[in-house]
Amino acid sequence: MKTSIKVRDLTLKNILIILSYAALLVLGVIYFESIFQYLGELLNIIQPFIIGFILAFIFNIPMKFFEKKLAIQNKKKRRVVSAILSVLLILLVLLLVVMVVVPQVIENVRTLIDNLPSIFAQAEKWLNYVFEEIRLSPDLLDKINEFQTRFAQTFISTLTAWAPNIASGVSHITTSVINIFMGFVMAIYMIFSKDKLIRQVKKFAHALFNDQHYQYISEVVKLTGTTFENFLAGQLTESIIIGVLCYIGCMILDIPYASIAAIVIGFTNIIPYFGPIIGAVISSALILFVSPVKALIFLVFSTLLQQFESNLIYPHVVGNSVGLSALWVLFAVSVGGGLFGIPGMVFGLPTFSVIYELLRRWTNYRLEVKRNLTKKQEEIVE
Q1: Distance (Å, rounded) from C-alpha 176 to C-alpha 184?
Q2: What are the two backbone dihedrals, phi and then psi, of residue 136, each rounded to the nearest 5 degrees?
Q3: Cα torsion angle, 156, 159, 164, 167, sign
Q4: I need a labelling partner for 100 at 20 to 30 A (CA). Which of 170, 214, 339, 365 fits?
Q5: Closest CA to 256 of 293, 216, 311
Q6: Global model pTM greater than 0.70
Q7: What confidence score (pLDDT) does residue 338 get?
Q8: How far is CA 380 from CA 354, 372, 374, 375, in A?
Q9: Residues 6+ apart with CB under 8 A from 253
Q10: CB-based burial of residue 329 (10 Å sphere; 0-12 exposed, 13-18 middle, 19+ buried)?
Q11: Considering only 44-58, 218-232, 324-338, which range has the smallest mean pLDDT?
Q12: Residue 100 has what DSSP assignment?
């Protein structure tokens, strides 16, 4: 009798849980736009915390390295010194970028602006030459001229419409700079208070979940942290190496806008698979207006550089940090980019890698359970 009452209570509990989830799902569908709007506002409010967490995660990568290498017996002191060295290292890298790279970029941008009239004149000369050689019909020329007129009018009207948004754009940039600064301060606090924060999160998780769920969640968090850490460390290191090699190669080959091309190549290389192609196309298009021959040379050089990176640098620097085949890498980057743009292309790969590994473990577990069940059934039959 007691067993049937327990079963009835358990069944009633499951029914209530299912009904609650169904009600929440229905409400979510009905008020989707409002919920999405509130979530967007919430993300804007907690943006400094998100930036701080990401920066703290990046700071933690060199911090772990220093913790392993420093010969300080006291664990607390070693962690504090490692945190200080990690922050100083990141600041030193940023300082070098500002002192070395930024002046070069400013000079290249100034040169590009000065060359804009000649670039437009050269483009117009090419177009006129093409039209004269092809000898287009008068009707088609009229349509082209009409398209140019409409395009110019549309361009001017678009600029006019954007003019009132300049103030809001400046305000948005100012807000972003403030959020980044606040995030940096929070990241420093997080990195120095890492042990305390981890203990608090573990304590809360212990109180919220039972031991089995807590153990599973801990494994998932550990897997996620390791995967993202290895991926970001490898990709950032590889991007810096590729950017430096690209700059050296451009200087040797006398490629115009060398620093801009190197930054574009290094930055886009963070994006797996599609990044090198995007960087090469953007840089080649920029160089094309100055010298088509140099643009072709750069395109060949960037292709050879990417082959060198794929076959030598990537296996040693990044290695098998994500553990996915080329097909799944392409799938993860495509889906991530389609859903969340460039951030999705960057973080879609490690995210999918975690999902893939969890599915692999679950599949192996289920197969093992089925094998054990089959063995027991065979033993019973025997």
Answers
A1: 12
A2: -70, 155
A3: negative
A4: 170
A5: 293
A6: no
A7: 75
A8: 39, 12, 10, 9
A9: 294, 297, 298, 301
A10: middle
A11: 324-338
A12: I
Quote the tokens at residue 284: 């080649």
Residue 264 and residue 237 in contact, taking contact as beta carbons nearer than 8 Å = no
pLDDT band at residue 144 under the 50/70/90 scheme: low
* CA 14 and chain centroid, separation: 40
Neighbours of 358 (CB within 10 A): 15
Q: Return phi, psi of residue 290, to 5°.
A: -90, -50
Question: Would you state the pLDDT for residue 198?
Answer: 84
Residues 184/52, Cβ–Cβ less than 8 Å:
yes
- Residue 123 binned pLDDT confidence (cut-offs 50, 70, 90): low
Output Rg (C-alpha) for the chain, integer angstroms. 28
Q: Nearest CA to 247 among 262, 235, 257? A: 262
CB atoms within 10 A of CB 61: 17
Rounded-to-integer distance, Cα 354 and Cα 362, Å: 12
Pick the more confident residue, 222 or 153: 222
**Under DSSP, is residue 151 helix (H, G, I), strand (E, B) or coil?**
helix
Q: Are 328 and 356 in contact (CB under 8 A)?
A: yes
Residues in the chain: 382
Please identify which residue in the block is written with the tokens 């943006």.
Answer: 47
163 to 93, 157, 166, 175, 270: CA distances (angstroms):
37, 10, 6, 19, 33
Question: Tokens representing 43?
Answer: 């993300």
Lowest mean pLDDT among 75-84, 146-155, 162-171, 266-275: 162-171
**Are 175 and 47 in contact, with CB atoms under 8 Å apart?**
no
Q: How far apart are CA 111 and CA 108, in angstroms?
A: 5
pLDDT of 326-374, one tens digit each? 677 777 777 877 777 777 777 888 888 888 888 888 888 888 888 877 7
Rounded CA separation 167/130 (Å): 42
Q: To which residue do tokens 């009905």 refer?
A: 30
CA distance 303 to 254: 17
Using one digit for the tens of pLDDT, what is the confidence trace for 25-37? 777 777 667 776 7
Token code pair at residue 13: 């509990």
Cβ-proximal residues to 270 (8 Å cutoff; 6+ apart), any chain:
235, 236, 239, 346
